[in-house]
Amino acid sequence: MKKLKIEAPKLPAHLEQMRFLDVLLDEDYYMTNGKIVEQTIEDLRIQKPIFSKLIFENLHFEKVVFPDIELTDVIFKNCDLSNADLSGAIIHRTEFTQCKMIGTNFADSSLRNVVFDHNLLSLSSFGYADLQKVAITNTKLPKADFYEAKFRNVYLDQCDLNEVNFAGTSLKGIDLRSSTFERLTVTIEDLQGCKISQEQSVGFAKMLGLIVED
Q1: In which element (H, E) is residue 151 found?
Q2: DSSP state of 23
């Protein structure tokens, strides 16, 4: 992560606590400069909400649809965003830590200076997303979908990548050595320039239909 020089969220020294709906529904679906803690947000559909300089902690989002959401200088900590629709999002200087995001939809999104740490991202979708300066660490991603995503300066460390779909996504410069998986959906072309361990190379050979013998 130091290599990537990922910019951390830029937050004021003090943030006042606020209620999510009281502020968001006030006007223009814009929320800034606050801390939202221990709340449940459900059955909410809003086009292009804008969140800036916020901390969300211990929030449960249920059946929320926020297409084209904009997140800048935001921290999500111990939040449940499972099945949330964040497609088309613009996400910059944002951190997701210890969050549950099973089936969360980030398709067609643009991510810059974003950190995912100790999260559950199984079945999540990043199809056609553009990821630049993104770190994904200590995170479980079984069956996540990165179909035809763009990776530029993406860092993966200690992740569960089993059955992740990387079809159409170039893994050039990506280091998979510290991550684990039994199967991936990937092509030979996608693997060019990718770093893998000797043990992983045997698995890739088998996935590609080669017969590996001593």
Answers
A1: strand 150-157
A2: H
pLDDT tens readout for residues 66-108:
999 999 999 999 999 999 999 999 999 999 999 999 999 999 9
% of the chain residues with pLDDT over 70: 93
The CATH code of the domain at 25-207 is: 2.160.20.80
- What SS3 state is found at 5? coil
pLDDT(35) > 90: yes
CB of 56 closer than 8 Å to CB of 31: no
Q: Environment class of residue 17 by beta-carbon count within 10 Å: exposed (0-12), middle (13-18) or buried (19+)?
A: exposed
d(CA 75, CA 9): 7
Question: Cα(152)–Cα(113) distance, rounded to whole angstroms?
Answer: 11
What would the pLDDT profile of 92-148 be if each residue is shown by its tens digit?
Answer: 999 999 999 999 999 999 999 999 999 999 999 999 999 999 999 999 999 999 999
Distances, alpha carbon 88 to alpha carbons 36, 71, 72, 118, in Å = 24, 11, 14, 24
Radius of gyration of the CA atoms of the chain, in A: 18
DSSP state of 7: P
Domain boundaries, the chain: 25-207
Which H or E run includes 84? Answer: none
